[in-house]
Amino acid sequence: MGKKKQKLVLPPELPPEVPDEDIEVSDEDLQFFNENLEYAGFVSNLDTHSITKHVTRVADAKEGDLESLYEKRLRKRLENKEKEPTAVEVDPVDALPVKTLDGQLYYRRVAKEPKEAEPVSGDPALVKLTKAEKRAKLKKLRKEAKKQAKEEVQQTPQAEVLDEVKKDLTAEEATEMKKYKLAELGTALLADPESNIKNIKEMLEISKDGNSAIVILGLKSLLAVFKDIIPGYRIRLPTEKEQEMKVSKAVKKMRFYESTLLSAYKAYVQKLVSLQHQAVYKRVAVRCLCTLLAAVPHFNFRDSLLAAVVKNITSQDDVVRKLCGTAVKSLFMDEGKHGGEATVEAVKMIAELVKAHNCQLHPDSVEVFLSLSFDEDLGKSRSSDMDNRTKNKNSKKRKGGDEPNDMPNNQGKKIRKEMISKTREEVSADFKAASLAQDPQEQRRLQSQTLSAVFQTYFRILKHAVLPISETSSVPGASRGHPLLASCLNGIGKFSHLIDLDFMADLMHCLRKLAGRDSKLGDSSENYSCLTVSERLRCCIVAFKVMRNNLDALNVDLQEFFVQLYNLILEFRPGRDQGEVLAEALKIMLCDDRQHDMQRAAAFIKRLSTFSLCFGSAESMAALVTVKHLLLKNVNCRNLLDNDAGGGSVAGAIAKYQPHAVDPNRSGALASVLWELNVLLKHYHPAVSSIASGISTMNMNNSQVYHSHVSPQQAYMELSQENMSFAPPTDIKTANNKRQKGMDKLPVKVGSDLNLKVQFDENEVRKKLAEHFFLLRDIQENERLRSELDRTTLSLNLYERYKKRKKRKTR
Amino acid sequence: MRPLDENETTLVFNKLHKFVGNNLKNIVLESQSHEGPDANPGRYCFRLQKKRVYYVSESLVKRATNIKREKLVSLGTQIGKFTKSGKFFLTIQSLNLLAANAKHKVWLKPTSEMSFLYGNSVLKGGVGRITENIQVNDGVVVFSMADVPLGFGDAAKSTVDCRKMDPNGIVIHRHADIGEYLRMEDEL
Fold first, then answer.
1. Which comes out higher in pLDDT, residue A633 or A52?
2. Where is the signal peptide (chain B) (predicted)?
3. Which residues of A touch B100 (CB under 8 A)?
4. In this structure, are residues A309 and A289 in contact, taking their beta carbons and an 8 Å threshold?
5. Contact flag B132-A558 (C-beta cutoff 8 Å)
6. Is A421 a domain residue?
């Protein structure tokens, strides 16, 4: 039946078959041909030349060879026929056939099965189905499967009854059977886990199948089952002593249930861990592991789950890595499920991993730390607890002091009271052990462990980054670049309030070294790896955050980091480096700091306004907001706004502005004039030009109590978002008018902005197209009219001739 | 009046280096004076006169040669003097030079300014702001919160240690302060 189709798919195979076509055509084929005549249209288009070439080639071959050649062909043909029924099922898009050297075709049959596989588990990681839904889905699936089976049964008689086909079919049936089995077992388990617990072992058996599709299905359905039936507590297997004891029926049943569940779970986890090394199952296994870790972190065998997931967090495969990352993050986020112990373990494992790989990992592995959360009063709560305790003691003492006065001779009562208090303590201890609510002290211990592991990792990365390349490269496998540095700096910035003061000096030292590592510094820095501008800016930001969060008592001036920032502004390239980081640095270092040296502030004002000339609009907006801040705070710096160079009395020791000075204090910026603002007034972006005019009109002597509420970061974000859809104020209409005047300057003026150009182009194109089509229509109209005219003249002529003839005849 | 010999130069430069660090080359090489009638700006140099070290522009030095050594009282800016035992110490007149190039700075709260100007050391409670990375015995220039240089001294504690100190601990040992212009008018 699918013969013609087959032909279409395999044109090169056909020509040699032509000679024995007559013999082979069956009735069915004829019937099909008659029914679908239009399909056969291609026959007329056949390349007869090439066919004859093939035929003659065959004819030229030696006689003996010829026979075998035909034999082969016959066999091939038969084989092709066998394949037809199965081949039809395969979507040709999904599975192109593979042709071996001897001309045999292999279809990939796997392609069909994963499609079915999905509804079974319904991608459990994403959608958590309720039991009812699951059951419904399973039923539906079964129905579908049955239908398909029927279809197959119908198809079979059509095909030639051959052994191999049978084999194929039986295999397929077997897989179908297994699928049903899985579905049935799974539903039974979900419906009543306690009585059907044995099913789980069968499911495990099925998932050991050789067929990869079945294995995947098995793993997924097992995952769904485990996720549902795993209890909310950790199972402890009874000791021998306990087993010897006589127990009630219910307890026995429960124990049996738990032990089977546990052993099955163990086998399952082990299977997953072993399967993740095989390429075929890798993703499935990792997804299962991650889902289990996220769903049941309190249960047994968490260690092996964690180990596997953490190991995969640096995988080359993006999907796997992301899965693991989200799993670990979810572990960190809801600690209520496992009481924080898993967090400590995971963090320690990641720390080990970083150590083992010598900091050459994917940044995702450390980024997960960012979702950790610590109590803000990690240090404070202890003292308050102590206070409480002492208070309690005091009150107790007071009470104790009172008691003997009341009843000095009542010894019996006293003893009884002691007894009562003792039992109470015991009960409360038991309650604590049983209840989910954690002991705050325990929690604090876990958190401090986590914190120390996190900072250990961070400091290791920093230290590694500080080391010169010559040292690190002696370690095999170490490459240049510090992939972890950025996320590490983010992390330190986030947890800076938790850093111990004792580490502070070393930390600052490291950061200073990193921030000061100039990529251009020539020979001395050659054995250092270069950091990008953003990374160095980050270093500065982190240093400021650390300082600010820890030292409210002592105001430390981070001179060196200011010098770094001053020079980094020079190296900043809007396209290459991240503008957000620059905006953040400007905010934290220049806007949030309370006071600055006058010289330094002036130097920054001058440099920022100079560079807002050549930044993009968003960056220059951030820079200008900062300039405004600085000018508002430093009244003396408003000298820069006056139109006389030299700076007058405040100019200081340096009489002339030195734009290339490295140290902002030595630049003598107060001697210069902010002429940049005037140029910025003509900025193409209205917001930038408005803020520039706002700055330039700032008054020298009135100390405005004006506080701009916009931070550079906000300004940057606003403009960079706006930039996506930003069309300069010149409207299309005005643009049209201007173009008519022959305005070629406009695109030059806003040359940087592509948007406008595009709009111009669009307009022009539209107009030209319109013209073109008008012209075309005119031509058509013209032609039509002409043809009409021709026709009428022709008919007129004909009529004339006819008349003449008639006249002649009548004569 | 004579240039400093080698020993004296090392002494003076060591002392200055303690306060200004690498900015010393600004003081010695790069700063230019526009004094005098010469068209091209001259440099500054150090001259010794009666045990006192002066920071003088070259054109002034040329003109000062016209005056006898005994009669020459002062020229340029005095920055320090050699003691009888041959040690060099900076005097308060060098403050402007140091303040412009200072590496380590401390800003005093307004309440503790007067105490410092009377010749007392700087206590931790009086520190309004401090540059990071000061080590013990580094030279530190003292400013008021309004960035007016007040004097200079030695760090008694590093910045890191300052955090843990109690507010009455000494942060900076005073060398010189601008109060000396009144208190020790005769000796200067």
1. A633
2. none
3. 652-654
4. yes
5. yes
6. no
Closest partner residue to A556 (CB to CB) among B100, B132, B164 is B132
> Over 90: is that where the pLDDT of A346 sits?
no
| Amino acid (one-letter) located at A375 | D
**CA–CA dist B48, B25 (Å, integer):** 20
DSSP-derived pairing of the beta strands A556-557 and B127-131: parallel
Angle between helices A249-275 and A302-312 (to 10 degrees): 20
Bridge partners of B53, per DSSP, are B48, B80
pLDDT tens for A782-801 read: 999 999 999 999 999 999 99
Q: DSSP 3-state assignment of A105?
A: strand
In a domain? residue A561: no
Chain B residues in contact with A512 by the CB 8 A cut-off are: 133
| Domain contains B109 | yes
Query: What's the domain count of chain A?
Result: 5
> What single-letter amino acid sits at A515?
A
From A698, A726, A754, give the residue that closes a domain.
A726
**Neighbouring residues of A585: CB distance < 8 A, sequence distance ≥ 6:** A537, A540, A541, A565, A568
Indicate whether B52 and B132 sit together in one domain. Answer: no
Average pLDDT, chain A: 71
DSSP class per residue in A736-752: HHHHHTT--HHHHHTTT
Residue A337's domain is classified under what CATH number?
A: 1.25.10
- B125 to chain A: closest CA residue: A554
> Which structure tokens are listed for A198?
């044995």
Residues of B in contact with A553 (CB under 8 A): 163
Give A459's pLDDT tier (boundaries 50, 70, 90): confident
Residue range(s) defining the domain that contains residue B179: 104-183
A421 touches B: beta carbon within 8 Å: no
Residues on B contacting A at a C-beta cutoff of 8 Å: 23, 26, 31, 96, 100-101, 105, 107, 124, 127-133, 145, 147, 159-160, 162-164
Residue A282 sits in the same domain as residue A151: yes
- Are residues A445 and A545 located together in one domain of the fold? yes
Closest residue in A to B33 (Cα) is: A655
Complex confidence, ipTM: 0.74
Structural domain boundaries, residue A600: 572-726
Statement to judge: residues B51 and B12 lie in one domain? yes
Chain A partners within 8 Å of B107 (Cβ): 557, 595
* Cβ count near A161 (within 10 Å): 8
Number of domains in chain B: 2
For residues A381-410, give the mean pLDDT.
45
Q: What's the pLDDT at A430?
A: 72
Residue B188 maps to a domain: no
Q: Which of B33, B62, B97 is the last residue of a domain?
A: B97
Q: Kindly indicate the confidence band of residue B150, based on its pLDDT and cuts at 50, 70 and 90.
A: very high
**pTM for this structure?**
0.59
User: Where is the domain boundary, A662, A691, A726?
Assistant: A726
CATH number for B91: 3.10.450.220
Taking an 8 Å cut-off on Cβ atoms, the answer to whether A556 and B130 are in contact is yes
Q: Which site among A504, A512, A556, A636 would you substitute to test the B interface, given the most B Cβ atoms closer than 10 Å to its Cβ? A: A556
Interface contact A560, partner B, CB < 8 A: yes
pLDDT confidence of residue A761: 74
Contacts of A559 in chain B (CB under 8 A): 105, 131-133
Q: What residues have CB less than 8 Å from A784, skipping those under 6 apart? A: none
Tokens of A50: 């090439």
The answer to whether residue A395 is domain-embedded is no
What CATH number does residue B117 fall under? 2.30.130.10
Interchain pair A556, B129: CB under 8 A = yes
* pLDDT, tens digit, 9 for 90 and up, residues B76-121: 889 999 999 989 989 999 998 888 888 898 999 999 999 999 989 9
Closest residue in chain A to residue B22, using alpha carbons only: A663
What is the DSSP annotation of B113-131? HHHHHTTPPEEGGGEEEEE
Q: Which residues pair with A99 in a beta bridge?
A: A105
When mean pLDDT is compared over A239-253, A264-278, A370-384, A626-640, the highest value belongs to A264-278
CB-CB: which of B96, B128, B163 is closest to A551?
Answer: B163
Question: Do B9 and B71 have their domain in common?
Answer: yes
